[in-house]
Protein backbone atom coordinates (compact mmCIF):
# COMPACT_ATOMS: atom_id res chain seq x y z
CA UNK A 1 0.00 0.00 0.00
CA UNK A 2 1.51 3.30 -1.09
CA UNK A 3 -1.12 5.68 0.27
CA UNK A 4 -4.57 5.71 1.86
CA UNK A 5 -7.28 8.32 1.49
CA UNK A 6 -7.52 10.69 4.44
CA UNK A 7 -10.47 10.14 6.82
CA UNK A 8 -11.92 13.55 5.84
CA UNK A 9 -11.02 16.67 3.88
CA UNK A 10 -9.91 17.35 0.31
CA UNK A 11 -7.97 14.07 0.04
CA UNK A 12 -10.68 11.99 1.70
CA UNK A 13 -13.08 10.97 -1.05
CA UNK A 14 -13.73 10.85 -4.79
CA UNK A 15 -10.22 9.49 -5.45
CA UNK A 16 -9.66 8.81 -9.14
CA UNK A 17 -7.33 8.89 -12.15
CA UNK A 18 -4.02 7.86 -10.52
CA UNK A 19 -0.94 8.03 -12.77
CA UNK A 20 2.52 6.71 -11.87
CA UNK A 21 5.54 8.48 -13.41
CA UNK A 22 9.32 8.34 -12.95
CA UNK A 23 10.80 11.77 -13.67
CA UNK A 24 14.35 12.93 -12.91
CA UNK A 25 15.08 9.92 -10.69
CA UNK A 26 11.94 10.36 -8.56
CA UNK A 27 8.61 8.57 -8.56
CA UNK A 28 5.42 10.62 -8.73
CA UNK A 29 1.78 9.60 -8.45
CA UNK A 30 -0.70 12.17 -9.68
CA UNK A 31 -4.34 11.71 -8.71
CA UNK A 32 -7.52 13.68 -8.28
CA UNK A 33 -9.70 13.89 -5.18
CA UNK A 34 -12.38 15.98 -3.52
CA UNK A 35 -14.06 16.18 -0.13
CA UNK A 36 -16.98 13.78 0.36
CA UNK A 37 -19.43 16.67 0.62
CA UNK A 38 -18.34 18.45 -2.59
CA UNK A 39 -17.46 16.26 -5.58
CA UNK A 40 -16.98 19.36 -7.74
CA UNK A 41 -14.17 20.69 -5.50
CA UNK A 42 -11.88 18.14 -7.14
CA UNK A 43 -8.16 18.93 -7.21
CA UNK A 44 -5.03 17.25 -8.53
CA UNK A 45 -2.50 16.05 -5.95
CA UNK A 46 0.99 14.56 -6.15
CA UNK A 47 2.69 11.88 -4.06
CA UNK A 48 6.49 11.92 -4.35
CA UNK A 49 9.14 9.28 -3.65
CA UNK A 50 12.87 9.98 -4.18
CA UNK A 51 13.90 6.32 -3.70
CA UNK A 52 14.78 3.95 -6.54
CA UNK A 53 12.08 1.56 -5.30
CA UNK A 54 8.41 2.42 -4.98
CA UNK A 55 8.30 0.73 -1.55
CA UNK A 56 9.70 3.39 0.86
CA UNK A 57 7.52 6.14 2.28
CA UNK A 58 5.83 8.58 -0.05
CA UNK A 59 5.28 12.25 0.75
CA UNK A 60 2.36 14.41 -0.31
CA UNK A 61 3.35 17.56 -2.15
CA UNK A 62 1.12 20.64 -2.26
CA UNK A 63 -1.80 20.34 -4.61
CA UNK A 64 -1.35 21.21 -8.26
CA UNK A 65 -3.07 24.14 -9.89
CA UNK A 66 -5.70 26.44 -8.51
CA UNK A 67 -9.40 26.19 -7.77
CA UNK A 68 -10.04 25.62 -11.47
CA UNK A 69 -9.28 22.68 -13.72
CA UNK A 70 -5.73 22.96 -15.14
CA UNK A 71 -7.15 23.18 -18.68
CA UNK A 72 -9.08 26.31 -17.70
CA UNK A 73 -6.02 28.42 -17.00
CA UNK A 74 -4.70 29.81 -13.70
Explained architecture:
With 74 residues, the protein is mainly beta. It has one domain. It is 0% helix and 45% strand. The protein has no helices and 4 strands. The protein has strands at residues 13-23, 26-34, 43-49, 59-64. A 4-stranded antiparallel β-sheet has the order 1-2-3-4, with no helix packed on it. A hairpin with a 2-residue loop joins strand 1 (13-23) and strand 2. The protein is elongated, with a radius of gyration of 13 Å. The N and C termini lie far apart (33 Å). The model is unreliable at 68-74 (pLDDT under 50).
Stretches where pLDDT falls below 50 for ≥5 residues?
68-74
Query: Termini separation (Å)?
Result: 33 Å
What best-fitting shape do the alpha-carbon axes yield? elongated
Counting DSSP H or I runs of 4 or more residues, the number of helices is 0
Amino acid sequence: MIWRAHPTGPMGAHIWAPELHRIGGKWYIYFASAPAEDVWAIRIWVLENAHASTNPAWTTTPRCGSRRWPTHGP
